[in-house]
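Session log. Operator J.P. requested a structure for one protein chain; no other inputs attached. Running the standard single-chain path with token output.
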Amino acid sequence: MAIIRNIKTKIANQKNSMTTLNPYLVFKGNCEEAFNFYKSVFGGNFQYIGRYADIPRTERQTFPLEADEKIVHVSLPVSNGTILMGCDSTEAYGQPIVSGNNFSLSVTTDSRDEAERLFNELSTGGQIKMAMNETFWGSYFGMITDKFGIHWMINLNQANYS
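Structure written below.
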């Protein structure tokens, strides 16, 4: 009986966790077209849609001006708790975009400690693409590719959490 109680407690704790996992899709310049299509399929409204032109000038050194009208980030809720996210990218930002490597798993945590733990553990044997750091959009954020080649984005929206 104690074993069942322990299992039920672990399941309850997992359900109460504020950590979420969402797909993040990367496009070669047609993100807006793709997300308008997904919006027509899933319904709803964009939670956020931003363009590279919206990035503060102090952060623009790595983004080419010709990308100004492309999507820097879009999010579309598709169910209760699941958000489809995406952006436009080019080879100038890193690796070439091909089917199969054009997505990441985005993890949002409810604490800085949990964000650090996930980042450190997932990066073991992998490659850090962007170290955990404060961002201009108000998050504590980092990107890695794990030792199995899976791309991860770890995020703590500091406006919502401490």
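Operator note: The two ends are 37 Å apart (CA to CA).
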